[in-house]
Structure formats: C-alpha cells, structure tokens
Automatic annotation (TrEMBL), chain A:
Key words of the record: Cell membrane, Electron transport, Heme, Iron, Membrane, Metal-binding, Transmembrane, Transmembrane helix, Transport
GN (gene name): cydB
Protein family according to the UniProt entry: Belongs to the cytochrome ubiquinol oxidase subunit 2 family.
Subcellular locations according to the entry: Cell membrane
Domain of life of the source: Bacteria
PANTHER family the UniProt entry points to: CYTOCHROME BD-I UBIQUINOL OXIDASE SUBUNIT 2 (PTHR43141:SF5), CYTOCHROME BD2 SUBUNIT II (PTHR43141)
Membrane topology per record: Multi-pass membrane protein
Lineage: Bacteria, Pseudomonadati, Bacteroidota, Flavobacteriia, Flavobacteriales
Protein known as: Cytochrome d ubiquinol oxidase subunit II
TrEMBL record, chain B:
Stated family: Belongs to the cytochrome ubiquinol oxidase subunit 1 family.
Topology term for the membrane: Multi-pass membrane protein
Record field: transmembrane: 12-34, 54-71, 91-115, 127-145, 187-205, 217-235, 324-346, 358-380, 409-430
PANTHER family reported in the protein's UniProt record: CYTOCHROME BD MENAQUINOL OXIDASE SUBUNIT I-RELATED, CYTOCHROME D UBIQUINOL OXIDASE
Subcellular location: Cell membrane
Top-level taxon: Bacteria
Pfam families from the UniProt entry: Cyt_bd_oxida_I (PF01654)
Native source organism of the sequence: Psychroserpens luteus
Keywords of the record: Cell membrane, Electron transport, Heme, Iron, Membrane, Metal-binding, Transmembrane, Transmembrane helix, Transport
Protein name: Cytochrome ubiquinol oxidase subunit I
Amino acid sequence: MEIFWYVIIAVVLAVFFVLDGYDFGTGIIHLFFAKKEKDKEVIAKSAGLFWDSNEVWLVAAGGMLFMAFPTFYASVFSGFYLPLIIVLWLIVFRAIGLEFRGQFKYQMWKDIWDTSFGVSSFLLALFFGIALGNIVRGVNLGSVENGVSAHEGHYFFLPLWDSSFSPLSETPGVIDWFTIIIGLISVVTLSIHGANWVILKTNSSINSKLKGVIFKLNIALTILTIFSLFVWQIVNPNSLDNFIDKPYLIVFPIVYFTGLIGLFFIKKIKKNSHAFVLSTLLIVGGITSSLASLFPVILPSVNDTHEHLTIYNTAASEYGLSVALTWGIIGFILLFVYMIIQKRLMGGKIDNMDYGH
Amino acid sequence: MEDMLFYDRLQFAFTITFHYIFPQLTMGLSLLIVYFKWRYLRNNIEKYNNAAKFFMKIFAINFTMGVVTGIPMEFQFGTNWAKFSELTGGIIGQTLAMEGMFSFFLESSFLALFIFGEKLMGQKLHFLTGFLVFLGSWASGWFILATNAWMQHPVGYEILDNGKFVLENFSAIFTNPWLLPAFLHNQLASVVTSSFVVASIGAFYVLRNKQTDYGKLFLKTGVIFGLISSVLVAFPTGDWNAKNVAKYQPAAFAAMEGIFETEDAGAEIVLIGQPNMVEKKLDNKIAVPNILSFLTYQEWDKQITGMDQFEEDELPDNIPALYYSYHIMVGLGTIFIGVMALALFFLWRKKLYNIKPLLWTIMFLVPFPYIANLTGWYTAELGRQPYLVYGLLRTSDGISPTVSSGNTLFTLLGFVALYMLLGLLFLVLVGKTINQGPKPQIH
C-alpha cells in the first residue's frame, strides 16, 4: 500500500512539473526572448490561461503527501522551511504577474508584471531543481553535530547554504554546487519545455527562432546531464544499486534520454505536439529516474546516527491508506472526465481567446 | 520556546485571516451566480446573464487570490506545525487530500470553462459549468470544516503508543456531530457576505445613478438573499453551534459568554462588558438574567458552568479575545438581520431605491460581514485553545521542533509585506471591475 501511494504521488508530482513546468518555461522564454508587445502578450496568455488549474496539482500532491506520509511531510516541510516559504512567495509573484499585466494599458505597468512573471518563473524552475538535488544528496537528519543529535532522528533544519557550499559537508545547506547544477538542469529543461509550449499554443513571431533556441539549450542540457551523472556518483555513491538490482528500472533513464536525443531533431519535427511530448519525456524521465535510484528511501541521511527516511518509516496506517485508495480511484476517474471535457473545449491555439479584460 | 509558539500562531492567524477574505466571498457568490444564470435560462432577459458574468469576473479575481493565499495554508501545516502534522496527518491528511481531489480539480477545471466557454458550449452547458464551480467551492468548505470539526471534537481515531493519531473509522469523520452545524453555519455566513457585496454594489450604482437597472437588480437580489441567510445563520445554525460548544467544550463556552462565576440558578446573557482578567469579572456589564440558560437548555434555571470550575490550563489562553470575537460576531449578525429586514420592507413597499440613508448604510456595511465571518472563526479557534486537537494535543506540542522563532518572524514579515501588496492590487482590480459595471462594453 505504501508503494501504491508512493507511485500515485510521484505521478501527481510529475504531472505538476509537466503542466506547471511549461508555465515556468514559458516565463523564462518570455523573460529572455519576447521583445515585441504582441508576442509578450500572447506568450503570457499561453501560461495565464492555465496556471491556476496546473497549480492545483501541487496542492493535490501536497495533500496526498500529508495523508499518506505524514512523517515525511512534517520532516521535509519544516526542514526546508526557508526555501519552501520563498517558493510560496515566488508562486504568488508568478501568479499576479500573469493576472495583472492585462489590467491596464500602460507599458510600464505591463513591464512590471512581465518581469514579475519572468523572474519568478526562472527562480521557481531553479528552486525546484535545487529541491530535487537536496532530496538526492540527503540531509543531516537529527541535526547531528559531533555525534550528538539536536532533534528526533526524523527532523532536521537546513540553512540556505553552508559556508563550504559543498554537498559533501557534514551539514550541507540547501544551496551547494551540486544542487545548483541540478537547479540549472531544471531551468534548461523547463525552458525547452516552455519554448515547445509557446510554439504549440501560439502564433507568435518568434516561434521559428525558438526552435533554434531549443536546439542550443539541448546541447547545454546534454553537457550538464553528462557532468551531473559524474558528480551524482560522488554525492550519492549508491545511486546505481537499484538499477543493477532491478534492471527494469532502466526504463526511466531511457525515457529521459529518448527525450534528450529526440530534441536534437527539433528542426525536422513537423508536428509541434511531438516536440512537446519529447520535452515531457525529459521531465518525466528525469524525476522518475531520480526517485527510482533512491527507492524506497525518500530522504537520505548524510550521517550514520539516523536512518534514512523511507516510504515505510514515514507512512500513515494501513487502514488510512486503503480507505484513501477507494476515494482516490473515484477522484481520479472524475479528474479524467474533467480533463477530457476541458481538452475538447480548450484545445488549439489561444491567440484569439479573450483573457484578462 | 514561548516565542516560537507565539510567532507560529501569529503567522498562521495572519495568513488564514487574509486568506479567508477570499473564499468566504467565492463560496457565497457562486450560489448567487448560479441563481442569476438560472433566472436567465428561465426568462431569457439579457440583464440576468450579464449579472452572472459580471459577478464571475469578481469571482475570478477572488478565486485567484484564494488560490495564491491558500497554498501557504496547506504548506504551513508542515512548515510551522510539523509535530501536529506528524501526529495527526493520518487523519486530517485524509480530508485535506480529499479537498484537493474532489474540490479544487472540479472548481478550477470548470471555472476556466465558465469564463471562456459561453459561446462554445451554449447556455445550458454554461449554466452547468457554473453549477459545478459552485459545487466545487462548497465541497472545499465541507472538507475544511470536516478537518476543523475533527480538531474541535475528535472522533474515529486511535492513539498509538508513540502519540500518533491513526484513523480507525473513516465515516465517523463525516458524521461528526460538530461537522454539519459548523458547515451550514459557515456556508450561510459566506452567503451573507456575498449578498452584502451584491447589495452594496447595487446601492453604489443606484446612488451614483449609473447602470441603475443593474443596481436595482443587485439590490433586490442581495437584500432577499441577505435577509434569508442572515436569519438562518443565527437560527437554527448559530444556535445549534453554540449548543455544541456548551456540550463539547464547556470551558470555551464559559469564556466566550463571559461567565466567570458559576451561579446557582440560571445564567444571564451578557450584552456588553469588558473582561477584567485580574479581578476575574466583567467591567461595565449589561446583562439579561436567565436568558443564556434558556437559550442553551430551554430551561430558565439550568446551571451553566463558569470559568471558576475549570483548571487554569484547561481554559482558553486568550479569554478577552475569545469573548470579544464572539460578541462582535453575534452583535453584527443581529444588525445584519435588522438592516436587511428594513430593506426588504421598503423593497416590498417599492420605496427602497429612493431611501438614500438606507442605501448608504447598505453600501458601507460591506466590510462588516467579512468581520463577522472572521470573528466567527476566531471564536472557534480561540475557543479550542489551549489545544490543537481538543482535549488531546496541546497547541504548544504541535509546532515544528527545528524551526526557530527568528526564521518564523522573517517569513511572517515577508507575508505581511507581500499581502499588503496583494491587498492593494486586489482593491484596485475589484474597484476597476465595479467601475466598469456589468453592462457589456462595445469594442
């Protein structure tokens, strides 16, 4: 039952990063590449129409995590206190950037909210990557110093950074050179994803240029990926064990690399939706490969005093999980129905849809 | 340690207060939007459709605010109340996860369709999407109230040796005797807020002599809905809740009613007075004898336990705040019934639109239902103190063990600054929408 909920939450999180991921990516593209007002408007709109229904996936993931793995939820949310609250603030700035830009016709007004949307999207992409890096690297559970625990073994508190900026420190912080690399991978991946979304959903004048941008970003992503695979081994030497024990898990990295290789042919791909699928593979493959390499651990401990947090030592009761399974199935069926209805009515390019006035 | 508890509580109080400005409007307003849309389907008068669409714009702004201020609420359980989350997550995680699953997905999917899809779908489907948004927003209220009801009056649980609450009976959570009255009271109170908003905008248009046909429609609708909901909030639902408090949280009941000493005969009801915590009495008290006993138990001479019968650490830790919250809520609720009854009388005599003082009153009353809703929640939450889970888990035992008060103060200050900005933008946007009015603009 723990495994079941672990998979469900992983899927919900992956869906969140695929859906809201294109909003973040759209924000980054908007920040760096949209120059003409007409393009700015339509690109912002391609995120603005969808961000709130996409964000619901984050709320759903949070709720399910709380329900299924309350100890993990309590530990991680209090341990990553500062970065999480900062992410909440950025989410607000992203949202109001999108919602307010169209409210008044002054250029200055629009510029303010465009910047708010763009910069917060960029930082959100970076922070979510850093978060993944932290999960992979592990934390100092129990806040052990000189062999003495300051808290119960499943609690910790991370500063934003440790003076060494090293993931190998005994008391690593949220930001170190390893998590920054994962953060950059996240920024580049979501930029590619966002560019694909803009091409898919709009007729903006930079669409053809964006294909070239995707190609260049993909080169950068390839270099970062290869580099990260090496440092990953330094930070978490056991990360390949799962793939050796259970060779079928290799499917997740294959998903990632399919996306990565496929995107090199971006200029030859005729159907825009196919390119979008490829960047979706990148996100899904990246998240699932990372989780698979840790399983069943969900937060490693960097000290020897306290054991890793796993899906087993943080889960709610068996009865609670199985009750939730019943309503969860009903809920997902309903959700599927909503999505089909929405898709049928709101597919296609959004240039002429009325929004924000 | 004291500092940490203080800042954690202050941050939660501040963020939830600001958050609850928005859902209390959207829940009630969705009902009125469905009503306007339904009238349009029946009578085909364009005015009703425009009214529905106009309030959907106001709804959408509030919905956005509700979403962005709501996510911090869900996260704060983990960030600031980690121990509470760890111990009770197996139970309240259920209801919170169900809220996401059954309410937010429904609400957000169909809100977009309601706003953008009228031409694509035709009128009947458009009505249906509006109805589903209403359903989603009320479902959200239901799950939040279920969560809160469990904290007020825990049921269906088992406590393990390590202090963890585990779910023992899922359906008990939803048949909790605390839940239904609290839900109805809360939802009706949100209808009060939205009726006052609708009536207030109507009064504004009539007084300003601008789009008066809409002004009159809004006034009429707002007054009728406002009177019905104001009455129902007080009786039976308010009464029912008060009886629940008396039954399940007698210490909170004594504190909110301001009963310091247990009287042998029936208890008086306090109308006005200031709690004096040093001398343990009410200053400047005006009270009516025996009424409280009658209201609570339908017996004039029934004894009601005063605060003197409880241990200090069983009483709510901020008695004056609790007492004032409760009395402000009740006082305002009474005024709402009076004003709306008067307005309905003049509406019936076809004079309402010409009685300017009454229109001004209705227009300026608009902040007060918000205050009444919030003080109602303060009453519930302050009354539950010093517990998070009534009688079982103390508030001081629920905070995050690793987050320092300095960090919480930092984030609290950030939230204050950010929400000031949000509040300003919100007012500008709503003001702009009201100023434009419901009449379709010609492009």
